[in-house]
Amino acid sequence: MGADLPGADLPGGGPGPGSGEAAGASAGGGTGRVTLSRTPDAAWLRRYQRVGEPGPHVLNVLSTGPSVWFASIRGEGEVPVAIGRCVVDARWAGFMAVEVDPAYRRRGLARAVMAALAGRALEEGASAAWLQVERGNDAARALYDGMGFGVHHLYHHFRAS
Questions:
Q1: How are beta strands 128-131 and 2-4 bridged, if at all?
Q2: Which of 42, 68, 98, 103 is 20 to 30 Å from the Cα of 58, by its Cα?
Q3: Structure confidence at residue 1 as a pLDDT band (50, 70, 90)
Q4: Which candidate, 111, 88, 106, places its Cα nearest to that of 11?
């Protein structure tokens, strides 16, 4: 999916404060603040659903890129209720690993994470964005459609048998 990144269309009106925090949606009893960081901390990695215990190769892949940002929204426990990652490369911002604890879904947390990351990407000069979403993830597709993303192309993964 791809989209332009016009700042006026972002929830929250664009980039967050330079302090590394941006306004976000409420996460239930938490403050609902999106925290941005250059590296994934241990709590971010516990929410990340792609691997069990990430080894150094996973950390290297996650942290590599021209300008990498990690977002998280803390809940009441140690594991964030929502996370996301963005890589900014010149005019392009790539979004990935946007994940929300199932108990906290439908509260605007993914939108808040996306808005904070997009705001940072805009500050760095990005003007277009891309992401990948699985075909059956209807909730994510609805979110991204509402944020101005549209299907660019489809692809398939193949595994050796």
A1: antiparallel
A2: 103
A3: low
A4: 111
Q: Which residue is it, tokens 């590296």?
A: 39
Verdict on whether the full-model pTM lies above 0.85: no
Three-state DSSP at 149 gives coil
**Strand pairing report for 92-100 and 128-131:** parallel
How many Å apart are CA 91 and CA 66, to the nearest integer?
Answer: 12
Give the helix/strand (H/E) hosting 143: helix 138-146
Spatial neighbors of 99 by CB under 8 A, at least 6 apart, are 47, 48, 49, 82, 83, 84
| CA geometry: angle 108, 35, 24, nearest 5 deg | 25
β-bridge partners, 67: 88
Give the whole-angstrom CA distance, residue 75 versus residue 121. 25
Q: 């241990």: which residue's tokens?
A: 42
Residues 130-149 have pLDDT tens digits of 998 888 999 999 999 999 99
Closest CA to 152 of 122, 132, 126: 132
| Residue carrying structure tokens 């809940």 | 75
Phi, psi for residue 99 in degrees, rounded to 5 = -135, 140
Burial (0-12, 13-18, 19+ Cβ within 10 Å), 40: buried
